[in-house]
Structures are given as C-alpha cells and as structure tokens.
Amino acid sequence: MSMSMPVRILTSFCLLLFLPMLGVSQPDSLRVGFYPSPPFIALDEQGTLSGVTPWLWERLTAADSLTYSLHQMPLDSLLHQLAAGRLDAALVPLTITSARSERIDFSAPFYVAHSTLMVRRASSLSKGLAFVASFFSLNFFRALGALFLVILVFGGLAW
Fold first, then answer.
1. Rounded to an integer, what distance in angstroms lies between the CA atom of residue 76 and that of residue 118?
2. What phi and psi values does residue 66 have, to the nearest 5 degrees?
3. Which of 14, 103, 130, 158 could form a disulfide with 83 if both were Cys (CB 3.0 to 4.6 A apart)?
4. How far apart are CA 68 and CA 89, in angstroms?
5. pLDDT of 17-66, one tens digit each?
6. Main-chain dihedrals φ then ψ at residue 44, nearest 5 degrees
C-alpha cells in the first residue's frame, strides 16, 4: 500500500523535528583540579576534602546534577592546566590579579579580606616632637622665605 505524497511529506517533517534530540546526551564529567589550602580546602588522611570551598562546590554541583572528578595538583600546574583547557574548573583560594584574569576566568569572590599591618602605637611625646621637627625642614624655610618676599614686595608698593 502506497502513501500519498502529502502524508510522506508530513511524516518526514515530523521525523525531522525530532532530529535535534538525537544530539542531546548526558554531559561529560567535569575535570576539577584542587590545591589544599586550609582553612578553605583541607585534605585529611583518608583523602576527604573539607572546608568552605568544597562545601560550596558540592552544593553547586548537586543543584545542577553535575558529575565531576577531582584531581589534586600543585598550584603552578593547576593554573597552567586550567589556562590550557585541560581542566574545566579549579577549587583554589586564589588572589585575582590582572595577569591571571587575562588567562583564566574567575567567579565572584565569596571571601574578601583586607590585609593590614600592625605597628607599635606612638607616644604623645614622640608625636609632639615629630610635629615640632616638621617646622625645621627645608620646605618650611622655603615657604617662610616666599611669604616674607611677598610681604616685602606688597609692603613696598603700598608705602
């Protein structure tokens, strides 16, 4: 029994609609490198990761049902392999610099620290002596001489 031409065209068209679905498959496993750096990433004797970064990574991958494999490596190797595309992601607390951001993409930071230096508090006497000593500098005497010259010129003109 032969199909009519419109039925063949309609059947072919319907089959073509399902063609893009053939390309849909399970995503590959992500290759993720890490570098232990406590307290953000700690590795115990059993090889279990702990810390803020693995905790966050597990929540993100569970929410999107992503599969991944973890690979421990030195920091230099990790950055090189990430830039070369041999790693999909890296779990490492890393300072974002302009040189690094030209080679790799960074997520938004979840921890920002502002480093400070501690110095011994100066006494009131040493602060006062430093203030008085600032009057006996070359710049102070230059400014005093310029002021004297301006007063002398305008005083002479007014007289």
1. 31
2. -90, 145
3. 103
4. 10
5. 666 655 555 557 899 999 998 889 998 989 899 999 999 999 988 888 88
6. -90, -175
Question: 102-148 pLDDT, tens per residue?
Answer: 888 888 888 887 777 777 788 888 888 888 887 788 888 899 899 99
**pLDDT over threshold 80, residue 16:** no
Q: Collect all residues with Cβ–Cβ distance below 8 Å to 143 and sequence separation of at least 6.
A: none
Helix (H, G, I), strand (E, B) or coil at 32: strand
Q: How far apart are CA 127 and CA 102, in angstroms?
A: 46
Closest among 23, 31, 41, 108 to 66, alpha carbons compared: 31
Q: Give the helix ranges, DSSP H, for the chain.
A: 5-17, 52-64, 75-84, 98-103, 124-133, 138-158
Q: Are 53 and 93 in contact (CB under 8 A)?
A: yes
- Would you list the DSSP string of 67-109? -EEEEE--HHHHHHHHHHTS-SEEE------HHHHHHS-----
Sheet holding 68-72, edge to edge: 68-72, 30-34, 89-91
